[in-house]
Amino acid sequence: MKQLNSSELRQLYLDFFAEKNHKVEKSASLVPIDDPSLLWVNSGVATMKKYFDGSVKPSNPRLASSQKSIRTNDIENVGKTARHHTLFEMLGNFSIGDYFKEEAILWAWEFLTDEKWIAMDPDKLYVTVYPEDKEAYKIWHEKVGLDEDHIVEEEGNFWDIGEGPCGPNSEIFYDRGPAFNDLSEDDPENYPGGENERWLEIWNLVFSQFNHKPDDTYDPLPNKNIDTGMGLERMLSVIQNVPTNFETDLFMPIINKVEEISGITYDKGSEKQTSFKVIADHVRAISFAIGDGALPSNEGRGYVLRRLLRRAIMHGRKLGIEKPFLTKLVPVVGEIMKEHYPEILEKTPFITKVILNEEERFHETLAEGLSRLNEVTEQMKKASETILSGEAAFQLYDTFGFPIELTEEVAEEQNLTVDLEGFESEMKKQRERARSARNEEGSMSVQSDLLSKLKDDSEFIGYGNIKTEGTLVTIIADDEFKESVEKGEKVRLVFDITPFYAEKGGQIGDTGAIKNKLGEVVATVTNVKAAPAGQPLHEVEVLALLKKGEVYTLEVDRRGRNLIERNHTATHLLHQALKDVLGNHANQAGSLVTPDQLRFDFTHFGQVTDNELKQMETIVNQRIFDSIPVTTVVTSIEEAKKLGAMALFGEKYGDEVRVVMIGEYSKEFCGGTHVSNTSDIGLFKIISESGIGAGTRRIIARTSEGYYKWIENQLSVLQHVSDQLKAQSVEELPNKLGQLQQEFKDLKQENESLSSKLANVQADDVFSQIDNVEDISYIAQEVQVKDMNQLRQLADKWKQENYSDILVLGLKNQNKVNLIVSMSNNAVNKGLKAGDLIKSIAPLVGGGGGGRPDMAQAGGKNPEGLSQALDSVSNWIKANS
């Protein structure tokens, strides 16, 4: 078997399939593009779904990739097992309706055993097959020549994740030898395919040959597919002959750096080894996730990222690392991965900035959490409790990021135990909440045979034309190909040539009309989308007979197209302006260009100030006023990058790309339509800016006619306000508003003065109603004041005049109740505490509260309980005196 490092193994795999005429796809972003069903890209096939379900036809039906992936469903097992990871790479080869089982099996065997490639000993390889898949069994036995005792039938070998493509699979296992056997000879899992350490699964071949339909029936796929997956990390552990994935060259340089920082040695016998593994695993995931645009937050993938960061920090503390240290590991990750993922080193300054900010915040949070934990344990001791509740442990975990192990450790130091069962129950509830919050769309769509059969070419000429004659080559109605359609039907049409732009890249499809030879409108185009092979698919409402093979005039709505082009070109200017003002990390994360406005989503890890928005707006408008020519060029990706063109993050491009250049200011890969000069945009106005998710923000803006309509609406509102305030003109509004504000301020002061006088008058009556219990004088009364602030004023007056030992006042305010308790020095010296009293009576008004020994307050939602709460004061005094 060849001795390879991680970079050599990855490249060898891709080279092998390139020789088999596969197109090697670049690893996609970990942050899914246009796929709400996924939190992260979690496998190689996740990025191929559009090809597998037939919604897009690839330029080459044979594909191969090394896809970075993240899975966090078993995060607690990372570091404890040999092969659990959050970030991993999946080597995969795929066939979209091209080759099938025989080629997939023979090529897998060739790559693993041939001297030119991995050169594994064939006797050490075993395979599993689905019992009903006699074809795969036959290929392994007769074509490969594998002995029958090396082929195991497994009932679980059927890959099915719900609706869409599915089928049997065949797994390949490597025998690491008896030394790795962790089970007894008679253990039912002690065989190739079982849960054991001896026979290690290294490759899974999935033969997608059925459509799992919504009614749970299985039909043969119109196009059979191949999907395979080989984990780079575990394959590397076999090739480098190390006990676990963590001893490979993908992890050891990180572990060595942690040794240097901590002063602790990583060795097989060290009980600290798990912490080294967790840190090495998590910092890889963190670096790649941030590099791909994910940012820490309290929701979604941002929450996952924050959790990984905090777990790594906590394991650093177990190694004695008390200061931020993860930033020192990012360059190490970059060096390990630079040959295939140079972006980590390129983005190291940004990645380390984000991580350092999180580390510093978490160290502050840890201090708060320890303080909170100490408060809880002190209360437990006073109450003679010895078990910390699962709810309290979960709150520490969820709010402060405390791992349960740390809570157990602190509790043990104080002779306390933790209710782990209760903690797990709370964790389960959280997982259920997270699961229900996720979009549970099927992982794939049911494959459509109809659109995949579209063979007719269609040329888009809409960059320079909005009107042309074209032959109608395809009519689709009711999911069938038709020769003609009548008035009233809604159908999809393909022409051999069209000026209509198909919806993509954030730009909506064109609308317009289709006319016959007499110039009569025979159909209205309501939208245009791309077919799997890229043909513009016109969605139309039929107004008169349409026949396949006839020539029609296709005319785009000129006004709508012009408005779209202005907004689209403005998004390019805005994208560059964002980078100018916020920094290069601000990348486009989605857009929508319509005739009315543009919507632009972008990555940013902080708030955007009004001043920054103003700067962006000014920059864009200045470029509009400069009348910069907008030009395009179609070239290779390499040449486009030499020009300095910016590719949209996460997008995949063909061999040739179209670059839209706005002078030297903006250069982007883009297939959309644009104005010929920035002056055509007219004006640009940012209407709103807001956060829409973890590390993602959204700008809504308008140009030209959309801006004019917005201005008209704003002026209408101002005129209405002007009329209401009886201003002579809009210009007088600031003065009128100033006058109203002063009048309001004067009235408010007068009102507060009157309220205070009324409260003082009421105080004389309230403070005269003094009761006595056990030599303790007290006042417990309901008062009619404005708010909690006036309750506190009454308490201050009571304290100054020393009317009694205890004061309890209650206020009903709509559907709420406010309570305040004050204790004199005499009462406090007798051991009475305001906080204890408020905790006793607050539940009677449906609330809770607390405070100092001399002052406490509470709120509640049960006004009917106020009388009972005030009446119970005397009983409390008796019980506590």
From TrEMBL:
GO molecular function, one term: catalytic activity, acting on a protein
Cofactor: Zn(2+)
Domain of life: Bacteria
GO CC aspect terms: cytosol
SMART domains referenced in this protein's UniProt entry, alphabetically: tRNA_SAD
Residues reported in the UniProt entry to bind Zn(2+): H568, H572, C670, H674
Cofactor: binding comment: Binds 1 zinc ion per subunit.
Pfam families linked to this entry: DHHA1, tRNA-synt_2c, tRNA_SAD
InterPro entries cross-referenced by the UniProt entry: aa-tRNA-synth_II/BPL/LPL, Ala-tRNA-lgiase_IIc, Ala-tRNA-ligase_IIc_anticod-bd, Ala-tRNA-synth_IIc_core, Ala-tRNA-synth_IIc_N, Ala-tRNA_ligase, Ala_tRNA_ligase_euk/bac, DHHA1_dom
Intracellular or extracellular location(s): Cytoplasm
Ranges in coiled-coil conformation: 413-440, 730-764
UniProt entry keywords in alphabetical sequence: Aminoacyl-tRNA synthetase, ATP-binding, Coiled coil, Cytoplasm, Ligase, Metal-binding, Nucleotide-binding, Protein biosynthesis, RNA-binding, tRNA-binding, Zinc
EC number(s) on file: 6.1.1.7
Keyword Nucleus found: no
GO terms of biological process kind: alanyl-tRNA aminoacylation
Function: Catalyzes the attachment of alanine to tRNA(Ala) in a two-step reaction: alanine is first activated by ATP to form Ala-AMP and then transferred to the acceptor end of tRNA(Ala). Also edits incorrectly charged Ser-tRNA(Ala) and Gly-tRNA(Ala) via its editing domain.
Comment on protein domains: Consists of three domains; the N-terminal catalytic domain, the editing domain and the C-terminal C-Ala domain. The editing domain removes incorrectly charged amino acids, while the C-Ala domain, along with tRNA(Ala), serves as a bridge to cooperatively bring together the editing and aminoacylation centers thus stimulating deacylation of misacylated tRNAs.
Family in the record: Belongs to the class-II aminoacyl-tRNA synthetase family.
Cited HAMAP family: Ala_tRNA_synth_B
Name of the protein in its database record: Alanine--tRNA ligase
